[in-house]
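Hi all, posting the design record for the shared folder.

TITLE: backbone redesign
STEP: 1 of 1
STRUCTURE INPUT:
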């Protein structure tokens, strides 16, 4: 009889710990996980309306379907300043829509008007021997 009591108590304790970890665990662990895998993220698409570079941050005004956003980047500022231009379509990964967003994940940038790779310069006609005319 004592064995059944210990087994029942152990199973009940394990069940309660499992349910508690499933309910409270994600909220306790989320601050320690990267933003991209924390689970509560949303892709927001919009168009860059304005860009302002300061010494240690980049500010973007982005128009989305939910409303305007002011996005602040404080990491990789120089690289993002070169990459982003007004008129670009961007996809941001954020916890949700907010008017002010700090350091979202920039998933995609698409140039307005389909500007892609610059065409190579026209090559000059060459003779079969490799000499230029």
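Okay, here is what came back for every position:
SEQUENCE:
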């Amino acid at each position: 009889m004592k064995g059944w009591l210990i087994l029942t108590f152990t199973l009940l304790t394990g069940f309660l710990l499992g349910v508690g970890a499933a309910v409270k665990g994600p909220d306790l662990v989320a601050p320690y996980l990267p933003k991209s895998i924390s689970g509560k993220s949303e892709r927001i698409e919009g168009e860059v309306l304005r860009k302002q570079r300061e010494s240690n941050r980049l500010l973007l005004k982005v128009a989305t379907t939910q409303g305007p956003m002011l996005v602040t980047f404080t990491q990789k500022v120089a690289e993002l300043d070169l990459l982003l231009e007004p008129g670009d379509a961007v996809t941001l990964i954020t916890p949700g829509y907010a008017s002010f967003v700090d350091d979202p994940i920039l998933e995609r940038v698409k140039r307005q008007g389909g500007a892609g790779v610059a065409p190579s310069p026209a090559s000059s006609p060459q003779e079969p021997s490799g000499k230029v005319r």
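COMMENT: Helices lie at 2-29, 77-83.
Let me know if anyone wants the other runs.
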